[in-house]
């Protein structure tokens, strides 16, 4: 039957759209039949004379005659008392059941039988339901209910029967509140949805389109937020356009599976917004409906290119776009049309609506127009709000994992894990929880995400639509994966079933032994890159740390539940990033370094000590040479007799050593020159420990050590270890935290390291306000990336687009230091740092991101600036401090030290540079990397910047200005 015939005498009806969202896995509300005769009926009110602009929903009251004329079904029971009419049982639900797909009008009317304990007032029903003609109704049983304001039972046909009601849009059904009607309906009737969700699932906006189909019950938690739909007539209307197309094919499928539970089956596929891969699903074509989620239309239609408000302009006029309805506004109108933008760039009427998915990538990316119109703080506040406000978050049910739409908690787990799926978009995905492999349904894996996340359903064998008869963790793999396995040397004969762990170790199913590591071979990663297959991310922890939902549940606020906050720390080589990183581990981790790490670090430290000794021995040779040269000259002046043979009279210089030590020295220097030091030590440590002891006690060595400041290649930290060289080189040496902190090159081999932490609660602080508690719940991930990592390409940086703040380290003491750049030129290290800073600050990935500049090694700087003028560095040539005469006066505010002045001067230099590049404000702090408290406060400052950024949206725009002065410890 055509739907059009269903609603024959409808006066002012409209049709709901079919539901095309992901399958609903919960009970759907049962519609409780209505005792028509007992329905209190409001009198018809004259159409209120609201102007068109006033967006208030108008309800057509049900008149008794209307109802009666629609011949209520005979099996509707009657209610006996008016009181009952206002009572709504908590179990009252709306049920639509059909025993088979051939739903007759009769069967529906029967099933709409009255529940005994439930009564529903007509007005609530009329508000809640309106059957609209689905734009694309296929099949006679497809009709839709939408919770629109409408007149009475237009879903009833002439016989008063509801026809083939299969689709219901819950979004705008406000059930647990009596609806406030404009038409003067006195009704307070409400239809309550039972809260039978295991997890209360709140639907909002268009998200809660639930699909009702055969044998399929759902109950929906209707909450307050749904009522926003009522607030605006415009919105309600526009919601209607959130339509979708469903191919008849799918309906055929569903209908043919009569009586089968389709809860867990993927009902929809999502249009691939990115539609990146051209090879999409060629072989893979499940008979699934294609869904196109239509968008909220702009309130008005305008000439192409014109501004939606003033109607002026052409397509060349610069315009800002509404993230929801795509309305475009010119410079003059945008602020009026969008107001204070509490949810980012949306027309005022679109606030509270989900964004158009295709615009998700634009979230938080500010346009030039806004940058011109608003000040920096306002822009950042709006962009933050746009990115973080709840309404703009990805709706969990748009993400289907292994055939099941996600719950809110699951999406959070997914997004906040160590290796979340990149650029997650609505769609159907498969996820292999054991290995962490992740891909689009029907396609090869695209990523390795954190394993063991409790999201989605169990993986299906055909998840990636493989046809190789080779299985990994229960999934039949794709051809390209099989090719990779074969090239990686994995035996694939005999259609094996592999069990692959997150570390890439694999076993054949049923066997105990690990057969090898898939990613272990040198060429495999390259191979994967060539085949565009994912490899485990370097940042992944060996044991994929899982963010459990229990964890996130302790944090009430949505924003806190979100992701862990990522702090990316970068800096030019030698700036101290690894020191600060280690300091953070020591500060915030109960076990900063594992036994294995310590064992590894021990050998690194030991080989360092040998290299320091080597540098000293080299120095000793130099000093000895110098003295001998001096002697030679003296002697040549005295007379020719002794020339050429300095030791002829057996004279020894202060720097001479005995032949045995000399032999060791020669050998060590040779090893160092060949660059194999690390390979030989510390294995040789035991053997050479005694000779080192002897060396340390040697007068010539000690004399050299006294002159160590003359040895450029000896790092200043060397003395810390050399003083204890004898102990350190013993086999049973165990590096302490401080040893590790001071040791160079112990953090990571690949240039990337990360640590997850939160700031510990202050136990002693009794009256700690909730702010402190709040802070201790925030989780951070400090990621340190070595400057070398940028060498080859900045492509890496795209991995970090979700970091919240960039911590850029500069060593203050670099101003008189030189290093060779890529072209072999010797350049001032401060200038090299500046160049790197400029590159990072202007990198597109970090656009709009906060930068915190840590001016490190303040201790060295304070000392150095007294000896070496800051003007040694060209960039600082206008540093002319006015120094207080009374330098001994320790009142640092009135009489700043040269160090303080220098620091402040450099901070301002960087701030100006930053402002000239970005137009924004740079945060700066000084730090002493070797001092725990100093690093602690620097990192807390980073946290404060983030907190402060998050809180800003709570203040109106005008209030921001007061913060701007507090924003930085050192404003210009
Ligand atoms: N005196 C002093 N030395 C520091 C400070 N911070 C770091 N250092 C030393 O500076 C040297 C370089 O620091 P690293 O932490 O290795 O810095 P990095 O070069 O950015 O990091 P990697 O190259 O990855 O090791 C090390 O010897 C540190 O001990 C500081 O605040 N004061
Ligand atoms: Ca270093």
From TrEMBL:
One record GO biological process: G protein-coupled receptor signaling pathway
Q: Could you tell me which Gene3D superfamilies the record lists for this protein?
A: GI Alpha 1, domain 2-like, P-loop containing nucleotide triphosphate hydrolases
Residues binding GTP = 856-859
Q: Where does Mg(2+) bind?
A: 578, 749
Pfam families xref list: G-alpha (PF00503)
UniProt keywords (A-Z) are:
GTP-binding, Magnesium, Metal-binding, Nucleotide-binding, Transducer
Molecular function per GO: G-protein beta/gamma-subunit complex binding; GTP binding; GTPase activity; metal ion binding
Q: Which residues form the signal peptide?
A: none
The record, for SMART domains, names: G_alpha (SM00275)
Descriptive protein name:
Extra-large guanine nucleotide-binding protein 1
Source species: Buddleja alternifolia
